[in-house]
Design brief:
Length: 648
């Protein structure tokens, strides 16, 4: 099957020396001078981990980014500068310097408002009333209707001058439907992807009297937000060019978007050079696009690089406008520290590990391991390590990647469809309780101050030591506590572990604790960013962490959930919580409210237990970093082109 349907860098080209140009204009040369021309925006494609493909049905971040250059949505987003001025976030429009503060984006300033893309007017409901979409953050509360009618702008065209009308939209609607039905023909309808479910639920009505008008009809009233999100999923194809890509064959053999049948743009840019895995990709402005004057650069140039190291060198040499770093261990090698940082779903955790339970021939080693396991298994010792860390000092030690976190959940992880876990009241309440913060203040500054408490750390350590001294072994074994810290050998971990080791030894004294750093073998402490990142909702992460708290006999534990009057296994609890989470996002407000209250109560209880037992320690929030040659100018150009929908 040959479903390309988008830009693809083909590895089986017969003539690798040639490139395909969608237009007859001259392909621009790659700039050879160090200075980047003002009219071109240069970034990279890392061949080590990125494939330059725009696949409309199985997209990746790079393909999404490139597709944004070649298509236009029916309803788009624009920055609401009027509201930003009204709220005194900025004093004048288009002031992007105000958006970048402390190397992060202030999204309140960039709060978007809905605007018209391919549409001439906002959609009309079944009564013929135009529904203007205001308030991006309240979009999901909008009106419902069985029928929605849309009007296209006049004189819309593909790059090859062919017009776009309701027949184009209908053909693209039907073609998308055929392709998706074929791709998922072996699946049950219950597990169809969201875009196919929406296609099947929608009846397309073409206005026979006005070629710019079409409607969607539904058996049940649908919210405008649902309809617009579906409408924007459609990619438009010119019928003749698309059908040529599978002429004489079935539709599953279509090669539209490959080298021989290039993607026909109806967006701000078109492919000028590409479709060859050994050549850079270059996009140039599409003269047929109705708003191409809003885009700042005439060319977008993607340089192919072999690895991150090559990208760092090009950036340091001034040959790139921007660079995304995939390997954060390379951050310190960037000479120009003009960047923005963005939270990801990842958290760097400190994991605790017992020595293997096995009989040692050497009694000293056996006793050492027994004592270490006694401490590592005790929540008080794990909490003692937490309160011994001076996070403010770590931030000042040029640990570029260290962004302290105090939550087991990342900053962007959702608990419902619209709420972030770390913004919930119950999480902040749990955090204040754990850190003994009296005032209602969970700012990073306050959290850093309250999390560093050497006196409390020593008290917790001594309480464990005192209990150990009463055991049979503790009455006769007086050697310092031995801890093995595992390092992955990276510069970042070497620096961080060295700092943590120093802090622990300073707090508890080297006469009481002996910490060794190893890169292999048995260990007690290890820093890892893996394990939880593939769990996309807060409740699945918390259940996973809570399950690390096993029964004393090592068997799987059950969860006593008073709000459900049940004792549940891990899988049963996950099923209950997932059902409650789905119900809390339902349209039935009463059911949603009751489910959400129950859901939050259980999650609050789980998080409380995790803070008490502390099976792992959250250390730092993982961020993506995008570096700019000229922070304000290059960020502004990037924003005007991709609207924060690019890869970082």
């Amino acid at each position: 099957m040959a479903f390309f349907f988008g830009i693809k860098s083909l590895n089986d080209n017969k003539d690798e020396s040639s490139s395909t140009s969608v237009s007859s204009n001259v392909t621009p040369e790659t700039p050879k001078e160090d200075k980047i021309p003002k009219d071109i925006y240069v970034k990279t494609i890392n061949k080590q981990n990125e494939d330059p493909v725009v696949d409309l049905f199985d997209s990746n971040p790079l393909s999404n980014e490139m597709l944004l250059l070649l298509k236009c949505n029916f309803i788009t987003l624009e920055t609401d500068w009027e509201k930003a001025i009204q709220k005194k976030h900025v004093s004048i429009s288009d002031d992007y310097s105000s958006v970048l503060q402390n190397n992060e984006l202030k999204h309140d300033i960039l709060k978007p408002t809905y605007a018209l893309g391919l549409l001439k007017n906002f959609p009309k409901d079944e009564r013929g009333i135009e529904q203007e979409i205001k308030g991006y953050d309240k979009f999901h509360y909008d009106v419902s209707s069985n029928k929605w009618t849309f009007n296209l702008k006049d004189n819309l065209k593909f790059e090859n001058d062919k017009k776009i009308n309701n027949e184009t939209v209908k053909y693209s609607f039907d073609t998308n439907k055929k392709i998706l039905e074929f791709l998922h023909s072996d699946k049950d309808e219950k597990v169809y992807p969201d875009n196919l479910k929406k296609l099947l639920a929608t009846t397309f009505i073409k206005d026979e009297h006005d070629e710019l008008t079409f409607s969607f009809y539904y058996d049940k009233p649908q919210k405008l937000s649902y309809v617009v999100s579906f409408l924007n999923l459609l990619t438009l194809f010119p019928k003749e060019e698309f059908e040529k890509s599978y002429e004489g064959k079935s539709i599953d053999k279509a090669e539209y978007g490959a080298k021989e049948y290039p993607f026909i743009s109806y967006g701000p840019y078109q492919v000028s050079q590409g479709y060859d895995h050994e050549k850079d990709w270059i996009f140039k402005k599409n003269s047929k696009y109705f708003e191409n004057d809003k885009y700042p650069n005439s060319f977008i140039h993607y340089k192919l690089i072999e690895n991150d190291q090559e990208g760092v060198q090009l950036f340091n040499d001034g040959k790139l406008n921007e660079l995304i770093i995939n390997d954060n261990n390379l951050l310190e090698y960037i000479s120009n520290k003009q960047y923005i940082a963005k939270d990801t779903r990842g958290v760097g955790y400190l994991y605790f590990n017992n020595f293997l339970e096995e009989q040692e021939d050497d009694l000293e080693i056996q006793n050492m391991k027994t004592k270490t396991n006694y401490f590592v298994q005790d929540p008080r010792f794990r909490q003692a390590l937490f309160f011994a860390i001076d996070r403010q000092k770590l931030k000042q030690e040029n640990l570029f990647k260290f962004n302290p976190t105090f939550s087991f959940i990342s900053n962007i992880t959702l608990i419902t469809d619209y709420e972030k876990f770390n913004k919930t009241n119950f999480h902040e309440e749990n955090l204040r309780k754990f850190l003994n913060i009296q005032e209602n203040n969970v700012s990073e500054t306050n959290l850093i101050q309250n999390s560093f408490n050497p006196r409390k750390a020593l008290e917790l350590f001594k309480s464990v030591e005192n209990d150990f001294s009463k055991t049979q072994l503790g009455k006769k074994y007086f050697s310092p506590l031995k801890i093995i810290f595992r390092s992955d050998g990276s510069d970042f971990q070497e620096k961080l572990i060295t700092s943590l080791k120093s802090m622990f030894e300073e707090c508890f004294s080297t006469s009481e604790i002996d910490i060794e750093v190893e890169t292999e073998g048995d260990f007690n402490l290890v820093i890892s960013e893996k394990g939880l990142i593939n769990r996309d909702r807060a409740h699945t992460i918390l259940v996973y962490i809570a399950d690390l708290i096993k029964k004393a006999n090592g068997q799987d534990r059950t969860y006593e959930i008073p709000y459900l009057n049940k004792q549940l296994s891990q899988n049963e609890l996950l099923e209950e919580l997932t059902a409650l989470q789905n119900k809390s996002d339902s349209d039935n407000k009463q059911d949603a409210s009751e489910a959400k209250t129950q859901f939050f109560n259980i999650i609050k209880q789980l998080e409380e237990e995790v803070f008490q037992k502390f099976p792992i320690m959250p250390l730092y929030q993982i961020k993506k970093h995008k570096f700019y040659k000229d922070l304000i100018n290059d960020f502004t150009d990037s924003f005007l082109i991709w609207r924060l929908n690019d890869r970082c």
